[in-house]
Every structure is written in structure tokens, then in C-alpha cells.
Amino acid sequence: MLKRPGERKPWAIEIKRGLAPKLERGFHLACDTVKPLHRRVVYGGAERFPISADVEALSLPSLCEELGNA
Predict the structure, then answer these.
(1) Are the C-beta atoms of 21 and 57 separated by less than 8 Å?
(2) Which letter, b or e, does each residue of 14-49 get, where b requires 16 or more Cβ atoms within 10 Å of its Cβ?
(3) How far apart are the first and last CA of the chain?
(4) Is 66 exposed, middle or buried (0-12, 13-18, 19+ CB in 10 A)?
(5) Average pLDDT for consecutive 10-residue bins of the chain (70 residues)?
(6) Which tens digit of pLDDT belongs to each residue from 18-38?
(7) Is 57 exposed, middle or buried (0-12, 13-18, 19+ CB in 10 A)?
(8) pTM of the complete model beyond 0.85
(9) Residue 12 forms beta bridges with which residues?
(10) CA distances from 46 to 9, 20, 31, 60, 67 (A)
């Protein structure tokens, strides 16, 4: 697939309701297909932390700030 000038790679973003985010198999399957630039899980807490080597959990305000800077 050719990349057009200015074309951006997608981000994978999953939203969880609780304070202990856990990724389901579907997230990983979708990421294998889409090959996103970043993988993020939004959850109800305030801390930012890695869930795995390539997935970070963060709050909605933190994600909004990150997307605004992208």
C-alpha cells in the first residue's frame, strides 16, 4: 500500500469504564490488522501507566492533550 504525502497512521483507542483497565482479545486482533502508530486505553483513573510494552493506559483529559499535540 502506498503512503500519500501527509497521510497519518491510525491510533488504536479503547475506552474502559473502570479503574483497572484490562484489554480484551479483540483489541489485540484489531491492532494486528490496523497496525496503529499508538495504542491507548482510556480509563476512569488519573494516572498514566503501561499495560504492556506497546499499550498505555491514561485518562480522557490526558488523551485529549496528547491528540491535540499530535
Answers:
(1) yes
(2) bebeeeebebeeebeeebeeeeeebbbbbbeeeeee
(3) 23
(4) middle
(5) 63 93 92 93 96 94 91
(6) 999 989 899 999 999 999 999
(7) buried
(8) no
(9) 39
(10) 27, 11, 25, 9, 17
Give the DSSP per-residue string, 43-59: -SSS--EEEETTEEEE-
Cα dist. 70→9, 11, 50, 64 in Å?
A: 11, 11, 19, 10
Single-letter amino acid, residue 38: H
C-alpha separations of 55 from 1, 6, 7 in Å: 25, 25, 23
